[in-house]
Design brief:
This protein has 257 residues and is of the alpha/beta class. The chain contains six helices and ten strands; from the N terminus they run E-H-E-H-E-E-H-E-H-E-E-E-H-E-H-E. The strands form two sheets. It has a seven-stranded parallel β-sheet, with helices on both faces. A three-stranded antiparallel β-sheet has the order 4-8-7. Helix 1 packs across helix 2. The N and C termini lie far apart (50 Å).
Length: 257
């Protein structure tokens, strides 16, 4: 009689279930693979917009969570043909602090994009948050450059945000989507000027990047508020409801809790 072999032990599947979030959920095992997924989609979308409209409008939050994506976008040879010459880069937010304060966002845009990408300097747009009319000036600039497109296409093409718990959604200010305000200043401490959820909700693609256990609370907040059918300024991601746009949540396993 043949000797009976012991049963083969199968490793359990540790892949978490994608959270119940509006839009598309892109799930990857870790932050490294997640960055690749975001940049691959960004690269394809930029090329499509340049072919369709002649330019590409990218709004990015230069927070510590997003900076690893920007570094890889600059130095990974897979993206050496990114159409920087046809791209306009917009800030999501700026904080009213002295130039040497590390909370200021512009140095991240300048250091990770403007100075190394080859983009013409005039196509990288700074928010001058220390000026009293910062919101008005940035609104005028957005309307000027987006206004070249035909109506219906005069909107941001890609908005890249970190998903964080509490008040922070890459600095986006919780102005209700039926408000006409594109940029607003919040008189908190420190004061900040940012594009509004109204502008984000009109974008072509809204991408939220959530990696690591610290992002899991932000994901949980959105799920809880959706379950209770309430939109809440204390969790700005719950205000995101893009019209005729694609909302994408890029999550690694740890961000799923």
């Amino acid at each position: 009689m043949d000797e009976q072999l012991p049963p083969i032990e199968l490793s359990p599947d540790t892949t978490p279930k994608a959270p119940a979030l509006p839009g598309a959920v892109v799930l990857r095992q870790d932050a490294d693979a997640l960055i690749d997924a975001v940049l691959a989609d960004l690269f394809i979308h930029a090329g499509n917009c340049v072919r369709a409209f002649g330019d590409f409008h990218l709004a990015v939050s230069a927070t510590p969570e997003i900076e690893p994506l920007l570094r890889r976008l600059m130095f990974d040879l897979s993206y050496r043909d990114f159409p920087w010459g046809r791209t306009r880069v917009w800030m999501v937010e700026e904080v009213d602090v002295p130039d040497e304060d590390d909370r200021q966002r512009w140095p991240g845009i300048r250091g990770h994009i403007t100075e190394v990408s080859g983009i013409p300097a005039e196509q990288s747009h700074q928010i001058f948050a220390r000026e009293p009319d910062a919101a008005h000036r940035y609104t005028s600039l957005l309307r000027e450059h987006l206004g070249w497109r035909e109506k219906g296409h005069d909107r941001l093409d890609f908005v890249l945000l970190p998903l964080q718990p509490g008040l922070a959604l890459g600095g986006v200010i919780g102005v209700q989507s039926d408000d006409d305000t594109l940029v607003a200043t919040v008189p908190e401490t420190p004061r900040r000027t940012a594009i509004t959820t109204r502008l984000v909700n009109s974008a072509r693609v809204v991408a939220l990047f959530a990696a690591g256990p610290q992002a899991a609370l932000g994901v949980a907040q959105v799920i809880e508020r959706r379950a209770n059918k309430r939109q809440d300024l204390s969790a700005p991601a719950s205000l995101l409801s893009p019209r005729a746009a694609e909302l994408r949540w890029y999550l690694d396993h740890l961000a799923c809790g």
